[in-house]
Amino acid sequence: MNNLQQSKAIALGYLMKVSAGNINASHTEGNVMVAKKVTLPDGSSVPYFSGQAKRRMLRDRLEDLGFTLSEASALVSGQEVTPPVRPWEFVDEDLFGYLDPSGNRRRTSPVRVSAAVGLFSFQGDRDLGTRSFERFGQDMAAGGNMFETELYANMFKGNMLVELDRAGIFSDQEVGKNNKEIPEALEKIERNGRLFYVLPGEERQRRLQALLDALGLLWGGGRTARMLSDLSPRFFVYARLRVKHPVFLEALQARYLEGRYGLVPDPLRTALDKFKDFRQAVIFGLEAGFLGNEEEIRAELQNYGPVLSVHEAIAQAKEDIKKL
Amino acid sequence: MNVLWVKVTAPLASFRRPLDHNYQRTLPLPPPTTLFGLAGAARGLAEEELWQEASPLRDLLVATLALQKPGLARDMWTVMKIKNNKLAERSPYFREILFNARFMILYGGPEELLAELQQAFLDPTYPLSLGREDELIVVEELGRGETCPGAPLFSGTVIPGDLQGLRFKWVPRPGIAFEPPAVETMPLAFEVDKRGIRYPLNPRPFTFLPYDLEVELEGYQDALTIEPLEGRSFTWMNWSSWESRTSLF
User: Fold this and answer.
1) Out of A233, A288, B175, B176, which could bridge B212 as a Cys pair, Cβ 3.0 to 4.6 Å?
2) Residue A61: pLDDT above 90?
3) ipTM of the predicted structure?
4) Where are the domains positioned within chain A?
5) Taking the model in full, what pTM does it have?
6) Considering only residues 191 to 220 of chain B, which have any Cβ-Cβ distance to chain A shorter than 8 Å?
7) Do the Cβ atoms of B11 and A109 come within 8 Å?
Protein backbone atom coordinates (compact mmCIF):
# COMPACT_ATOMS: atom_id res chain seq x y z
CA MET A 1 0.00 0.00 0.00
CA ASN A 2 2.36 2.62 -1.29
CA ASN A 3 -0.08 5.51 -1.13
CA LEU A 4 -0.76 5.07 2.56
CA GLN A 5 1.34 8.05 3.50
CA GLN A 6 -0.85 10.18 1.27
CA SER A 7 -4.22 8.56 1.86
CA LYS A 8 -5.07 8.48 5.54
CA ALA A 9 -8.75 7.74 5.54
CA ILE A 10 -11.85 6.72 3.68
CA ALA A 11 -15.03 8.59 4.55
CA LEU A 12 -18.33 6.96 3.67
CA GLY A 13 -21.75 8.55 3.79
CA TYR A 14 -24.97 6.77 2.91
CA LEU A 15 -28.74 6.85 3.14
CA MET A 16 -30.82 3.87 4.18
CA LYS A 17 -34.56 3.50 3.84
CA VAL A 18 -36.82 1.78 6.35
CA SER A 19 -40.37 1.33 5.09
CA ALA A 20 -41.79 -0.02 8.36
CA GLY A 21 -39.49 -1.14 11.11
CA ASN A 22 -37.92 -0.78 14.52
CA ILE A 23 -34.30 -1.61 13.81
CA ASN A 24 -32.85 -1.02 17.24
CA ALA A 25 -35.33 -1.01 20.10
CA SER A 26 -34.87 0.58 23.46
CA HIS A 27 -36.66 -0.60 26.61
CA THR A 28 -40.27 -1.68 27.08
CA GLU A 29 -42.87 0.62 28.57
CA GLY A 30 -45.65 -1.65 29.82
CA ASN A 31 -46.33 -3.85 26.81
CA VAL A 32 -44.85 -1.37 24.31
CA MET A 33 -41.44 -1.99 22.75
CA VAL A 34 -40.05 1.53 22.41
CA ALA A 35 -37.89 2.58 19.46
CA LYS A 36 -34.63 4.40 20.15
CA LYS A 37 -35.17 8.07 19.49
CA VAL A 38 -33.82 11.51 20.27
CA THR A 39 -35.89 14.39 21.58
CA LEU A 40 -35.01 17.64 19.83
CA PRO A 41 -35.10 21.04 21.55
CA ASP A 42 -38.46 21.81 19.89
CA GLY A 43 -40.00 18.72 21.52
CA SER A 44 -40.19 16.59 18.38
CA SER A 45 -38.24 13.35 18.13
CA VAL A 46 -36.32 11.42 15.49
CA PRO A 47 -35.51 7.69 15.57
CA TYR A 48 -31.97 6.39 15.43
CA PHE A 49 -30.10 3.15 15.67
CA SER A 50 -26.74 2.93 17.31
CA GLY A 51 -23.31 2.60 15.81
CA GLN A 52 -22.94 -0.50 17.96
CA ALA A 53 -25.98 -2.08 16.27
CA LYS A 54 -24.51 -1.28 12.86
CA ARG A 55 -21.18 -2.82 13.86
CA ARG A 56 -23.04 -6.00 14.82
CA MET A 57 -24.73 -6.09 11.42
CA LEU A 58 -21.45 -5.44 9.59
CA ARG A 59 -19.79 -8.26 11.54
CA ASP A 60 -22.61 -10.62 10.61
CA ARG A 61 -22.38 -9.68 6.94
CA LEU A 62 -18.61 -10.22 7.00
CA GLU A 63 -19.32 -13.69 8.32
CA ASP A 64 -21.78 -14.19 5.43
CA LEU A 65 -18.92 -13.24 3.11
CA GLY A 66 -16.86 -16.13 4.43
CA PHE A 67 -14.75 -14.52 7.14
CA THR A 68 -14.38 -16.28 10.49
CA LEU A 69 -15.25 -14.03 13.41
CA SER A 70 -13.28 -13.92 16.65
CA GLU A 71 -16.20 -14.48 19.02
CA ALA A 72 -16.08 -18.27 18.88
CA SER A 73 -12.43 -18.12 19.97
CA ALA A 74 -13.04 -15.81 22.96
CA LEU A 75 -12.41 -17.27 26.41
CA VAL A 76 -15.07 -16.86 29.07
CA SER A 77 -13.75 -17.15 32.58
CA GLY A 78 -15.09 -15.80 35.84
CA GLN A 79 -16.62 -12.45 34.96
CA GLU A 80 -14.24 -11.79 32.07
CA VAL A 81 -14.45 -12.41 28.35
CA THR A 82 -10.99 -12.45 26.83
CA PRO A 83 -10.83 -11.94 23.07
CA PRO A 84 -8.32 -14.04 21.13
CA VAL A 85 -6.20 -10.93 20.23
CA ARG A 86 -5.22 -12.32 16.83
CA PRO A 87 -6.20 -9.45 14.50
CA TRP A 88 -4.01 -10.91 11.76
CA GLU A 89 -6.41 -13.89 11.77
CA PHE A 90 -9.78 -12.31 12.55
CA VAL A 91 -11.07 -9.51 10.35
CA ASP A 92 -13.43 -8.27 13.06
CA GLU A 93 -10.59 -7.82 15.58
CA ASP A 94 -8.67 -5.91 12.91
CA LEU A 95 -11.47 -3.62 11.75
CA PHE A 96 -13.56 -3.26 14.89
CA GLY A 97 -10.97 -3.51 17.66
CA TYR A 98 -11.07 -5.34 20.98
CA LEU A 99 -10.40 -4.97 24.69
CA ASP A 100 -8.57 -7.61 26.67
CA PRO A 101 -9.75 -7.08 30.26
CA SER A 102 -6.91 -9.08 31.77
CA GLY A 103 -4.03 -7.03 30.41
CA ASN A 104 -2.95 -3.95 28.58
CA ARG A 105 -4.05 -5.09 25.14
CA ARG A 106 -6.71 -3.14 23.38
CA ARG A 107 -7.28 -1.94 19.90
CA THR A 108 -9.34 1.12 19.13
CA SER A 109 -11.39 0.38 16.07
CA PRO A 110 -9.85 1.83 12.89
CA VAL A 111 -13.39 1.78 11.48
CA ARG A 112 -15.56 4.39 13.16
CA VAL A 113 -19.27 3.81 12.67
CA SER A 114 -21.73 6.58 13.40
CA ALA A 115 -25.22 6.01 14.71
CA ALA A 116 -27.82 6.04 11.96
CA VAL A 117 -30.10 9.00 12.52
CA GLY A 118 -33.56 9.40 11.00
CA LEU A 119 -33.98 12.43 8.80
CA PHE A 120 -37.68 12.81 9.56
CA SER A 121 -39.66 13.04 12.81
CA PHE A 122 -41.08 10.02 14.59
CA GLN A 123 -44.84 10.00 14.15
CA GLY A 124 -45.78 7.70 17.04
CA ASP A 125 -46.81 4.70 14.93
CA ARG A 126 -47.20 1.27 16.55
CA ASP A 127 -47.56 -2.29 15.37
CA LEU A 128 -50.05 -4.37 17.32
CA GLY A 129 -49.27 -8.02 17.94
CA THR A 130 -50.72 -10.87 19.98
CA ARG A 131 -48.77 -13.51 21.82
CA SER A 132 -51.19 -16.36 21.56
CA PHE A 133 -51.86 -18.58 24.61
CA GLU A 134 -51.90 -21.46 22.13
CA ARG A 135 -48.12 -21.47 22.47
CA PHE A 136 -48.53 -22.31 26.14
CA GLY A 137 -50.71 -25.36 25.57
CA GLN A 138 -54.10 -23.63 25.74
CA ASP A 139 -56.89 -23.46 23.16
CA MET A 140 -56.78 -20.75 20.54
CA ALA A 141 -60.08 -19.54 21.97
CA ALA A 142 -58.23 -18.56 25.17
CA GLY A 143 -56.85 -15.58 23.25
CA GLY A 144 -53.49 -14.07 24.11
CA ASN A 145 -51.56 -11.08 25.35
CA MET A 146 -51.48 -8.02 23.19
CA PHE A 147 -48.24 -6.15 22.73
CA GLU A 148 -47.20 -3.17 20.69
CA THR A 149 -44.00 -2.20 18.92
CA GLU A 150 -43.18 1.34 17.97
CA LEU A 151 -42.25 1.52 14.32
CA TYR A 152 -41.35 4.10 11.76
CA ALA A 153 -41.04 4.78 8.06
CA ASN A 154 -37.97 6.91 7.68
CA MET A 155 -34.75 7.55 5.87
CA PHE A 156 -31.56 7.24 7.92
CA LYS A 157 -28.20 8.81 7.34
CA GLY A 158 -25.08 6.85 8.25
CA ASN A 159 -21.36 7.46 8.20
CA MET A 160 -18.13 5.56 8.50
CA LEU A 161 -14.54 6.69 8.72
CA VAL A 162 -11.81 4.13 8.03
CA GLU A 163 -8.28 4.87 9.20
CA LEU A 164 -6.12 3.56 6.38
CA ASP A 165 -2.88 3.83 8.35
CA ARG A 166 -4.27 1.54 11.05
CA ALA A 167 -6.40 -1.06 9.26
CA GLY A 168 -4.28 -4.20 8.94
CA ILE A 169 -1.52 -2.68 11.10
CA PHE A 170 -1.17 -3.66 14.74
CA SER A 171 1.06 -1.96 17.28
CA ASP A 172 2.97 -3.89 19.95
CA GLN A 173 0.69 -2.24 22.51
CA GLU A 174 -2.36 -3.66 20.79
CA VAL A 175 -1.15 -7.25 20.46
CA GLY A 176 1.24 -7.48 23.43
CA LYS A 177 4.95 -6.79 23.50
CA ASN A 178 6.13 -10.37 23.86
CA ASN A 179 3.36 -12.12 22.05
CA LYS A 180 4.78 -15.37 20.66
CA GLU A 181 1.67 -15.96 18.54
CA ILE A 182 2.49 -13.11 16.15
CA PRO A 183 3.28 -14.71 12.79
CA GLU A 184 6.91 -14.30 11.75
CA ALA A 185 5.79 -13.52 8.22
CA LEU A 186 4.25 -10.16 9.18
CA GLU A 187 6.25 -7.14 8.12
CA LYS A 188 7.65 -5.22 11.10
CA ILE A 189 8.06 -1.46 11.16
CA GLU A 190 9.58 0.60 13.96
CA ARG A 191 8.21 4.10 14.41
CA ASN A 192 8.56 6.49 17.38
CA GLY A 193 9.93 3.73 19.58
CA ARG A 194 7.01 1.40 18.82
CA LEU A 195 6.85 -1.75 16.80
CA PHE A 196 4.09 -2.24 14.23
CA TYR A 197 3.11 -5.50 12.54
CA VAL A 198 1.75 -5.08 9.03
CA LEU A 199 -0.42 -7.49 7.07
CA PRO A 200 0.45 -8.03 3.39
CA GLY A 201 -1.00 -5.33 1.12
CA GLU A 202 -3.35 -7.73 -0.69
CA GLU A 203 -4.87 -8.92 2.58
CA ARG A 204 -5.39 -5.37 3.79
CA GLN A 205 -7.09 -4.48 0.52
CA ARG A 206 -9.23 -7.63 0.73
CA ARG A 207 -10.46 -6.69 4.20
CA LEU A 208 -11.30 -3.12 3.24
CA GLN A 209 -13.08 -4.34 0.12
CA ALA A 210 -15.03 -6.81 2.24
CA LEU A 211 -16.11 -3.98 4.51
CA LEU A 212 -17.55 -2.17 1.50
CA ASP A 213 -19.30 -5.36 0.40
CA ALA A 214 -20.71 -5.81 3.92
CA LEU A 215 -22.13 -2.28 3.79
CA GLY A 216 -23.62 -2.99 0.38
CA LEU A 217 -25.37 -6.06 1.83
CA LEU A 218 -26.43 -4.52 5.12
CA TRP A 219 -29.45 -5.79 6.98
CA GLY A 220 -30.07 -6.85 10.54
CA GLY A 221 -31.12 -5.46 13.90
CA GLY A 222 -34.02 -6.67 15.99
CA ARG A 223 -37.41 -8.04 14.97
CA THR A 224 -36.14 -9.25 11.58
CA ALA A 225 -38.54 -12.22 11.79
CA ARG A 226 -41.52 -9.93 11.26
CA MET A 227 -40.12 -6.50 10.31
CA LEU A 228 -37.19 -7.24 8.05
CA SER A 229 -35.57 -4.12 6.59
CA ASP A 230 -33.05 -3.83 3.81
CA LEU A 231 -30.47 -1.38 5.13
CA SER A 232 -28.20 -1.39 2.10
CA PRO A 233 -27.44 2.15 0.92
CA ARG A 234 -29.83 3.87 -1.49
CA PHE A 235 -27.38 6.72 -1.79
CA PHE A 236 -23.67 6.22 -1.20
CA VAL A 237 -20.65 8.48 -1.26
CA TYR A 238 -17.05 7.33 -0.95
CA ALA A 239 -14.13 9.71 -0.46
CA ARG A 240 -10.47 8.81 -0.09
CA LEU A 241 -8.78 11.52 1.95
CA ARG A 242 -5.39 12.83 2.99
CA VAL A 243 -6.80 13.74 6.42
CA LYS A 244 -8.91 11.90 8.96
CA HIS A 245 -12.15 13.82 8.99
CA PRO A 246 -15.68 12.40 8.90
CA VAL A 247 -16.52 14.62 5.93
CA PHE A 248 -20.12 13.48 5.46
CA LEU A 249 -21.18 13.32 9.12
CA GLU A 250 -23.36 16.43 8.88
CA ALA A 251 -23.63 16.61 5.10
CA LEU A 252 -26.70 14.48 4.39
CA GLN A 253 -30.05 16.19 4.71
CA ALA A 254 -33.33 15.31 3.07
CA ARG A 255 -36.80 16.65 2.47
CA TYR A 256 -40.06 14.90 1.70
CA LEU A 257 -42.12 16.39 -1.09
CA GLU A 258 -45.09 15.00 -2.96
CA GLY A 259 -44.51 11.47 -1.74
CA ARG A 260 -40.81 11.32 -2.68
CA TYR A 261 -37.58 11.73 -0.78
CA GLY A 262 -35.31 14.55 -1.91
CA LEU A 263 -31.64 14.95 -1.04
CA VAL A 264 -30.66 18.52 -0.19
CA PRO A 265 -27.53 19.16 -2.26
CA ASP A 266 -26.09 22.23 -0.49
CA PRO A 267 -24.65 20.62 2.70
CA LEU A 268 -23.07 17.82 0.65
CA ARG A 269 -21.60 20.28 -1.83
CA THR A 270 -20.32 22.46 1.03
CA ALA A 271 -18.63 19.47 2.69
CA LEU A 272 -17.00 18.41 -0.59
CA ASP A 273 -15.81 21.97 -1.27
CA LYS A 274 -14.50 22.36 2.28
CA PHE A 275 -12.30 19.28 1.87
CA LYS A 276 -11.34 20.06 -1.73
CA ASP A 277 -7.61 20.14 -0.94
CA PHE A 278 -7.75 16.87 1.01
CA ARG A 279 -9.90 14.55 -1.11
CA GLN A 280 -8.15 12.28 -3.58
CA ALA A 281 -11.06 10.32 -5.00
CA VAL A 282 -14.83 10.71 -4.76
CA ILE A 283 -17.41 8.22 -6.02
CA PHE A 284 -21.19 8.50 -5.75
CA GLY A 285 -23.79 5.77 -5.92
CA LEU A 286 -27.47 6.49 -6.40
CA GLU A 287 -30.32 4.01 -6.71
CA ALA A 288 -32.39 4.87 -9.76
CA GLY A 289 -35.84 6.18 -8.91
CA PHE A 290 -35.12 6.61 -5.20
CA LEU A 291 -34.83 10.39 -5.04
CA GLY A 292 -37.48 12.76 -6.29
CA ASN A 293 -34.74 15.19 -7.34
CA GLU A 294 -32.48 12.57 -8.94
CA GLU A 295 -31.64 14.63 -12.00
CA GLU A 296 -30.70 17.66 -9.91
CA ILE A 297 -28.47 15.52 -7.67
CA ARG A 298 -26.78 13.81 -10.62
CA ALA A 299 -26.10 17.17 -12.23
CA GLU A 300 -24.72 18.68 -9.02
CA LEU A 301 -22.51 15.77 -8.03
CA GLN A 302 -20.96 14.89 -11.35
CA ASN A 303 -18.70 17.92 -10.90
CA TYR A 304 -17.04 16.08 -8.00
CA GLY A 305 -16.85 12.49 -9.21
CA PRO A 306 -18.67 9.75 -11.14
CA VAL A 307 -22.33 9.23 -10.23
CA LEU A 308 -23.12 5.54 -10.66
CA SER A 309 -25.66 3.06 -9.36
CA VAL A 310 -24.95 1.99 -5.77
CA HIS A 311 -23.59 -1.44 -6.67
CA GLU A 312 -21.40 0.06 -9.40
CA ALA A 313 -20.14 2.71 -7.00
CA ILE A 314 -19.20 0.07 -4.44
CA ALA A 315 -17.42 -1.91 -7.17
CA GLN A 316 -15.53 1.21 -8.24
CA ALA A 317 -14.66 2.04 -4.63
CA LYS A 318 -13.23 -1.47 -4.30
CA GLU A 319 -11.14 -0.81 -7.40
CA ASP A 320 -9.97 2.46 -5.86
CA ILE A 321 -8.81 0.56 -2.77
CA LYS A 322 -6.57 -1.52 -5.04
CA LYS A 323 -4.62 1.66 -5.80
CA LEU A 324 -3.55 2.02 -2.19
CA MET B 1 -3.17 35.35 26.24
CA ASN B 2 -3.01 33.46 22.93
CA VAL B 3 -5.95 31.21 22.24
CA LEU B 4 -6.72 28.49 19.74
CA TRP B 5 -10.48 28.22 19.26
CA VAL B 6 -12.12 25.24 17.60
CA LYS B 7 -15.81 25.23 16.71
CA VAL B 8 -17.13 21.67 16.53
CA THR B 9 -20.37 19.80 15.88
CA ALA B 10 -20.93 16.59 17.78
CA PRO B 11 -23.85 14.63 16.26
CA LEU B 12 -23.73 12.40 19.37
CA ALA B 13 -21.82 12.98 22.60
CA SER B 14 -22.12 11.84 26.18
CA PHE B 15 -20.18 13.02 29.22
CA ARG B 16 -21.01 10.61 32.02
CA ARG B 17 -21.34 11.99 35.52
CA PRO B 18 -18.71 10.15 37.56
CA LEU B 19 -20.88 8.29 40.07
CA ASP B 20 -23.66 7.27 37.69
CA HIS B 21 -23.81 3.62 36.82
CA ASN B 22 -27.11 2.08 35.73
CA TYR B 23 -28.57 5.39 34.62
CA GLN B 24 -25.74 7.48 33.23
CA ARG B 25 -26.72 11.13 33.06
CA THR B 26 -24.68 13.33 30.79
CA LEU B 27 -23.10 16.63 31.68
CA PRO B 28 -24.12 19.39 29.28
CA LEU B 29 -20.52 20.14 28.31
CA PRO B 30 -17.27 18.18 28.06
CA PRO B 31 -15.13 18.02 31.22
CA PRO B 32 -11.46 19.13 31.17
CA THR B 33 -9.96 15.67 30.66
CA THR B 34 -12.10 15.20 27.53
CA LEU B 35 -10.66 18.41 26.09
CA PHE B 36 -7.12 17.20 26.83
CA GLY B 37 -8.01 13.84 25.29
CA LEU B 38 -9.28 15.58 22.16
CA ALA B 39 -6.03 17.54 21.82
CA GLY B 40 -4.07 14.33 22.47
CA ALA B 41 -5.97 12.50 19.69
CA ALA B 42 -5.25 15.35 17.28
CA ARG B 43 -1.55 15.23 18.19
CA GLY B 44 -1.42 11.43 18.09
CA LEU B 45 -0.53 10.94 21.74
CA ALA B 46 -1.17 7.56 23.27
CA GLU B 47 -2.93 7.66 26.61
CA GLU B 48 0.22 7.06 28.65
CA GLU B 49 2.01 9.82 26.71
CA LEU B 50 -0.84 12.26 27.19
CA TRP B 51 -1.07 11.74 30.93
CA GLN B 52 2.61 11.43 31.82
CA GLU B 53 4.16 14.24 33.85
CA ALA B 54 6.23 15.35 30.88
CA SER B 55 3.14 15.48 28.64
CA PRO B 56 3.60 17.87 25.72
CA LEU B 57 0.16 19.28 26.55
CA ARG B 58 0.79 19.96 30.23
CA ASP B 59 0.93 23.74 29.71
CA LEU B 60 -2.46 23.95 28.02
CA LEU B 61 -5.40 25.77 29.51
CA VAL B 62 -8.83 24.55 28.48
CA ALA B 63 -12.36 25.96 28.32
CA THR B 64 -15.56 25.29 26.42
CA LEU B 65 -18.91 26.85 25.58
CA ALA B 66 -22.11 25.37 24.17
CA LEU B 67 -23.17 27.06 20.94
CA GLN B 68 -26.72 25.74 20.83
CA LYS B 69 -29.19 23.76 22.85
CA PRO B 70 -28.75 20.08 21.97
CA GLY B 71 -31.33 17.31 21.64
CA LEU B 72 -31.33 14.52 24.20
CA ALA B 73 -31.69 10.76 23.91
CA ARG B 74 -31.74 8.03 26.51
CA ASP B 75 -29.85 5.21 24.93
CA MET B 76 -30.41 1.73 26.33
CA TRP B 77 -27.49 -0.70 26.30
CA THR B 78 -27.46 -4.27 27.40
CA VAL B 79 -24.42 -5.76 29.05
CA MET B 80 -24.03 -9.49 28.72
CA LYS B 81 -23.51 -11.08 32.12
CA ILE B 82 -21.58 -14.24 32.71
CA LYS B 83 -23.17 -17.20 34.49
CA ASN B 84 -21.48 -20.59 34.84
CA ASN B 85 -18.73 -19.46 32.47
CA LYS B 86 -21.23 -18.66 29.75
CA LEU B 87 -22.55 -15.38 28.46
CA ALA B 88 -26.05 -15.64 29.82
CA GLU B 89 -28.10 -12.75 31.14
CA ARG B 90 -28.57 -9.32 29.72
CA SER B 91 -28.39 -6.41 32.10
CA PRO B 92 -29.78 -3.11 30.80
CA TYR B 93 -28.42 0.33 31.52
CA PHE B 94 -29.24 3.76 30.18
CA ARG B 95 -26.93 6.43 28.91
CA GLU B 96 -28.07 9.95 28.17
CA ILE B 97 -26.76 11.27 24.87
CA LEU B 98 -26.54 14.84 23.65
CA PHE B 99 -27.68 15.03 20.06
CA ASN B 100 -26.49 17.60 17.57
CA ALA B 101 -24.44 19.54 20.11
CA ARG B 102 -22.14 22.35 19.01
CA PHE B 103 -19.27 23.56 21.14
CA MET B 104 -16.60 26.21 21.03
CA ILE B 105 -13.47 24.63 22.49
CA LEU B 106 -10.70 26.93 23.65
CA TYR B 107 -7.07 26.14 24.30
CA GLY B 108 -4.69 28.68 25.85
CA GLY B 109 -0.94 28.37 26.19
CA PRO B 110 2.44 29.10 24.67
CA GLU B 111 2.44 30.22 21.04
CA GLU B 112 4.47 27.28 19.75
CA LEU B 113 2.22 24.73 21.41
CA LEU B 114 -0.94 26.35 20.03
CA ALA B 115 0.54 26.53 16.51
CA GLU B 116 1.32 22.80 16.65
CA LEU B 117 -2.14 22.05 17.98
CA GLN B 118 -3.82 24.12 15.28
CA GLN B 119 -1.99 22.11 12.63
CA ALA B 120 -2.95 18.90 14.42
CA PHE B 121 -6.66 19.81 14.35
CA LEU B 122 -6.40 20.39 10.59
CA ASP B 123 -4.68 17.04 10.04
CA PRO B 124 -5.39 14.91 13.12
CA THR B 125 -3.43 11.72 13.76
CA TYR B 126 -6.50 9.97 15.11
CA PRO B 127 -10.12 10.78 14.22
CA LEU B 128 -11.51 13.37 16.60
CA SER B 129 -14.16 12.46 19.12
CA LEU B 130 -15.36 13.83 22.44
CA GLY B 131 -15.38 10.46 24.16
CA ARG B 132 -16.33 7.14 22.65
CA GLU B 133 -14.57 6.09 19.47
CA ASP B 134 -17.71 6.14 17.34
CA GLU B 135 -18.89 9.54 18.52
CA LEU B 136 -16.89 11.54 16.02
CA ILE B 137 -17.04 15.30 15.72
CA VAL B 138 -16.83 17.63 12.76
CA VAL B 139 -14.49 20.61 13.01
CA GLU B 140 -16.54 23.46 11.55
CA GLU B 141 -13.99 26.21 11.89
CA LEU B 142 -10.90 27.05 13.89
CA GLY B 143 -8.68 30.05 14.42
CA ARG B 144 -6.44 32.01 16.73
CA GLY B 145 -7.26 34.92 18.98
CA GLU B 146 -6.25 36.95 22.00
CA THR B 147 -8.23 36.97 25.21
CA CYS B 148 -9.51 40.17 26.72
CA PRO B 149 -11.42 40.71 29.97
CA GLY B 150 -15.06 39.65 29.75
CA ALA B 151 -18.19 40.49 31.73
CA PRO B 152 -18.76 38.17 34.70
CA LEU B 153 -21.85 36.79 32.96
CA PHE B 154 -21.73 33.14 32.05
CA SER B 155 -24.05 30.78 30.18
CA GLY B 156 -23.51 27.39 28.58
CA THR B 157 -20.00 27.00 29.91
CA VAL B 158 -17.97 25.41 32.69
CA ILE B 159 -16.72 27.38 35.69
CA PRO B 160 -14.17 25.99 38.13
CA GLY B 161 -15.64 25.72 41.63
CA ASP B 162 -19.01 24.99 43.13
CA LEU B 163 -21.60 27.59 42.18
CA GLN B 164 -22.94 27.56 45.75
CA GLY B 165 -19.60 28.92 46.95
CA LEU B 166 -19.55 31.73 44.42
CA ARG B 167 -21.65 34.86 44.79
CA PHE B 168 -24.03 34.29 41.89
CA LYS B 169 -27.24 35.74 40.61
CA TRP B 170 -29.47 33.98 38.09
CA VAL B 171 -30.26 36.21 35.12
CA PRO B 172 -33.81 35.28 34.10
CA ARG B 173 -34.78 35.46 30.43
CA PRO B 174 -38.31 35.06 29.07
CA GLY B 175 -39.23 32.03 27.02
CA ILE B 176 -36.67 29.55 28.25
CA ALA B 177 -37.22 26.22 29.99
CA PHE B 178 -35.22 26.40 33.20
CA GLU B 179 -32.54 23.79 33.48
CA PRO B 180 -30.43 23.65 36.64
CA PRO B 181 -26.63 23.68 36.64
CA ALA B 182 -24.69 20.50 37.37
CA VAL B 183 -21.89 20.60 39.94
CA GLU B 184 -19.48 17.70 39.77
CA THR B 185 -16.05 16.90 41.09
CA MET B 186 -13.96 16.00 38.05
CA PRO B 187 -10.28 15.14 37.71
CA LEU B 188 -7.88 17.39 35.85
CA ALA B 189 -5.66 14.49 34.79
CA PHE B 190 -5.21 10.75 35.04
CA GLU B 191 -2.52 8.41 36.14
CA VAL B 192 -2.21 5.43 33.78
CA ASP B 193 -0.78 2.21 35.21
CA LYS B 194 1.11 -0.47 33.30
CA ARG B 195 -2.11 -2.31 32.47
CA GLY B 196 -3.53 0.86 30.94
CA ILE B 197 -6.00 1.43 33.77
CA ARG B 198 -6.64 5.11 34.49
CA TYR B 199 -6.88 6.63 37.96
CA PRO B 200 -8.22 10.17 38.41
CA LEU B 201 -5.80 12.84 39.63
CA ASN B 202 -6.32 16.27 41.10
CA PRO B 203 -10.12 16.27 41.45
CA ARG B 204 -11.78 19.69 41.53
CA PRO B 205 -15.39 20.84 41.67
CA PHE B 206 -16.78 22.34 38.47
CA THR B 207 -20.08 24.02 37.68
CA PHE B 208 -21.57 23.07 34.32
CA LEU B 209 -24.03 25.70 33.14
CA PRO B 210 -26.55 24.52 30.51
CA TYR B 211 -26.98 26.61 27.37
CA ASP B 212 -30.11 28.45 28.55
CA LEU B 213 -28.93 29.22 32.07
CA GLU B 214 -27.19 32.55 32.57
CA VAL B 215 -25.59 33.58 35.85
CA GLU B 216 -23.78 36.68 36.99
CA LEU B 217 -20.85 36.13 39.35
CA GLU B 218 -20.35 39.14 41.56
CA GLY B 219 -16.74 40.28 41.79
CA TYR B 220 -15.46 37.48 39.54
CA GLN B 221 -12.06 38.48 38.15
CA ASP B 222 -11.27 35.68 35.69
CA ALA B 223 -13.95 36.24 33.06
CA LEU B 224 -12.47 36.36 29.57
CA THR B 225 -13.72 36.65 26.04
CA ILE B 226 -12.47 36.47 22.47
CA GLU B 227 -13.91 38.00 19.34
CA PRO B 228 -15.61 34.90 17.84
CA LEU B 229 -17.64 34.51 21.04
CA GLU B 230 -19.55 37.70 20.24
CA GLY B 231 -19.60 39.00 23.78
CA ARG B 232 -20.03 35.72 25.66
CA SER B 233 -17.59 35.07 28.51
CA PHE B 234 -15.61 32.03 29.53
CA THR B 235 -13.01 31.16 32.12
CA TRP B 236 -10.25 28.56 32.02
CA MET B 237 -11.26 25.33 33.73
CA ASN B 238 -7.75 24.64 35.03
CA TRP B 239 -7.05 28.16 36.22
CA SER B 240 -8.24 29.85 39.38
CA SER B 241 -7.14 33.16 40.82
CA TRP B 242 -7.07 31.89 44.39
CA GLU B 243 -4.69 29.06 43.55
CA SER B 244 -2.86 30.71 40.67
CA ARG B 245 -2.29 28.15 37.92
CA THR B 246 -3.91 24.83 38.81
CA SER B 247 -1.34 22.18 38.03
CA LEU B 248 -2.52 19.23 36.02
CA PHE B 249 -0.46 16.87 38.16
Assistant:
1) B176
2) yes
3) 0.88
4) 9-322
5) 0.91
6) 194-196
7) no
